[in-house]
Amino acid sequence: MVLVTSPHRLAQPMRNYARRVRRHGTDPNNVRMEDVLCDFCHTPWTLDRPMVEGHHGSCICGNCLRAAWALTVTAQASDRPDGAPTKCTMCLEERTDRIFQSPAFSEAFICLRCVRLASRAVARDEEDASTAE
């Protein structure tokens, strides 16, 4: 997982991310910050909204990550009660652990492992920011 908090931290050119959520009309050779959308709520990335990048350009914003944490970690619940394998949007693996499904976009899922990894990335970035001040 890569925490993308500035436009300079986009890891790969857009050409690898064609199937992920991007603003309509995005120039694949010139991806701007506002072109990157959260896969779970389709909100654009801004300087005050942390965004964590998964495989192939999948992204989850801080607000959706908090909702996923509340369900999968705090409540120890899942949006997939039957335990059937579900493909995680962030890691692209078929997972059977607890999972959060976007309430707005039913094709977006994040597994418990990715929730924890993404949360650690956000926490590390917040620690780095506080020590830099």
Describe the main β-sheet briefly: 3 strands, antiparallel
**What's the number of structural domains?**
1
Structural class: alpha+beta
- Describe the strand arrangement of the main beta sheet, using strand numbers: 1-2-3
The helix content is: 25-40%
Query: Low-confidence spans: pLDDT under 50, at least 5 residues?
Result: 6-19
Summary, kept brief:
With 133 residues, the chain is α+β, with helices and mostly antiparallel strands. It has helices at residues 62-74, 112-132, and strands at 2-4, 51-53, 59-61, 86-87, 94-95, 99-101, 109-111. The protein has two helices and seven strands, in the order βββαββββα.
Explain how this protein is built.
The protein has one domain (2-132). Helix content is 26%, strand content 14%. It has helices spanning 62-74, 112-132, and strands at residues 2-4, 51-53, 59-61, 86-87, 94-95, 99-101, 109-111. It has a 3-stranded antiparallel beta sheet. Strand 6 and strand 7 (109-111) form a beta hairpin. The longest helix has 21 residues, at 112-132. It starts with a strand and ends with a helix.
